[in-house]
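quick one, 320 residues, struct below
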Amino acid sequence: MTRRPKSPLSSRNLSRSYDKHFKADDAYRATLPDMQNKDASQIQGANVPIQHVGISGFRLPMLVAARDGKPIPLECTITGTVSLAADRKGINMSRIMRTFYEFKDRVLSHELLEEILIRYKKDLDCSRARILVELRYPILQKSLRSGLEGWQYYRAVLEGTIDDLDRVRRYIHLDFVYSSACPCSAELTEHAREEREVYGIPHSQRSKARVVAEVSPSKSLFIEDMQELCLAAIHTETQVMVKREDEQAFAELNGAYSKFVEDAARVIYEQFDRDLRVRDFVIACSHLESLHSHDAVSVINKGMPSGLSADFSQFRDLIC
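---
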């Protein structure tokens, strides 16, 4: 049997030790293959544009702008994407992170996101770009009656987009967790007490509203503002520090503001619709029913032409 001659580059002949002293200079880097910048003939599948391509989930600590002007140090999780035209194989993925990192010591705000978006268009040679920064934002909450205070943390996202005409749009996402006491259950409980002298407890449950608001041009909107709009609508936000007098107050608060999931969507709508700082919005609510083995949900949007749509369906994300 005739054997084929071994290739001089056979893996058997290659070094298997890591050289920690090797340094890549410019000449060596120039020899490295660049698979993402191959010509269009190397594209697999259809040669069509891609709306979003980039990196999701890279994290870093940043100072985040607060309404009182005192930035807060928080862990931020970033998704950065850009558009990719037809005839282009791919993008330089590391550039998404490297460009963002050039701004890491600045205070995070929508204004900073606009600067980074403009750089994304330049550095990645794209027509559109998008950045979402997710964080857990702390707001000090006072108890209802005892005078205690505790930190409530809110899942929030600062989002910015830029289109092919360099138009920038700014968004804030906020998750607001509250208690929803069922009006029907409350009435049925009262009926049993009055008609049959039977003691009962109406059901209530932890619930969540996810609000996405587009900030009006030339206006400022902070996470604190979003929280206050939700609180003014819902009233029954879950509590941090609770003594007996606070628990009693919370029971009274739920009695004063019982609500179906339809009510929750509409009262939040009312608050955001009248605020001139908000250009557009969409609201998704989920009541994690203690009576049923399923949840009650609702979605409502402002209804602007080409605005935020009411096609939200990720209700499992609203479990709290």
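The first strand starts at residue 50 and ends at 64.
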